[in-house]
Amino acid sequence: MWILVNVNATITIFVFVPLVAIVAVAQIVTRRLQQSRAASQIATSRVTGALGEIFGAVQAVQIARAEQGVVDHFHDSASCAAAPCSRERKISLLTGSVYWNTVYLGTGSSCCSGARAMRDGTFTVGDFALFVSYLGFVTEFSGFMGLFSRSTSSSGYRWDACWRSCAAARRTCRPRRSS
What we know:
The structure is a single chain. By secondary structure, the protein is mostly helical. It has a domain at about 1-35 and about 85-170. The chain has five helices and no strands. Helix 4 (about 65-120) packs antiparallel against helix 5 (about 125-170). The longest helix is centred in the middle third of the chain and has 54 residues, at about 65-120. The relative contact order is 0.16.
């Protein structure tokens, strides 16, 4: 990065601003995405639980001739779960789109700045080649940072649940002391 700053600070800013913007967007969206994922997981678990109960009670449902009522109940459960899952998917796709489009805007603005500086004579072809060689790495890194922050925010909810269940298991399952 310091090499790029020494060559041309203005273009370096255009290269690294998308990274800062992506981190800012990730911080803003993280809480909303975690809430959406939690609601989606709860809704999915309700549908899965209903499906398990239906499969467990197939014979009783057939004897009572209540197949249509069970199917209607399952459709209602599935349609209630669709909204949170759809919301989570929309937020996830929107943030991914923001991340990559921010990267592309930064790439375009830095290339335009480089072309302007070359026209003015303050930027050489070698400087431009140096920036272009670093640009691929920086843009991929920026996009990856956005996707990584999005995926870690979703796994954070799962890790919290895992740690809570491990702590509960530790409290209930104390090893016996040998005498």
